[in-house]
């Protein structure tokens, strides 16, 4: 027989697993917004969701941007041309870039739940077209 706490924990775990979504972001040489893009460049997720980065074109990777991750989330950097799955475990915004195309504006922003680190992430300075691109992405955060 189940103990009440054990049953409640099991139900919560099942509910979390069922509710989790997978979001897909393509790494492209050319997309709807121009050259060298993540598409979509903004994803609104929930803690527990996964974001799958798909190298639709060669020559791209995914790297977290320093100071643009929620507290406690480890930085990451993938090899080129490899699919990457990020589990968004903490609430906040996650800033990512394609290392060789960062200055060309190949960046993305993921919002997981409440944007608890928004001020810190928005204060990060970027080079080239990434600066203007992030400005537009931060306008989508709710």
From TrEMBL:
Predominant localisation class: periplasm
Which domain of life, per UniProt? Bacteria
Q: Name one GO cellular component term.
A: periplasmic space
Q: Where in the cell is it found?
A: Periplasm
Can you give the residue ranges of the Blue (type 1) copper domain? 26-111
Among its keywords, does the record have tRNA-binding? no
Point out the signal peptide segment: 1-20
Q: Which residues bind Cu cation?
A: 60, 98, 101, 106
What's the record's note on cofactor binding? Answer: Binds 1 copper ion per subunit.
UniProt keyword annotations, A-Z: Copper, Electron transport, Metal-binding, Periplasm, Signal, Transport
What are the names of the required cofactors?
A: Cu cation
Q: Which GO terms describe its molecular function?
A: copper ion binding; electron transfer activity
Q: Which Pfam families match?
A: Copper-bind
What is this protein called in UniProt? Pseudoazurin
- Species for this entry: Sediminimonas qiaohouensis
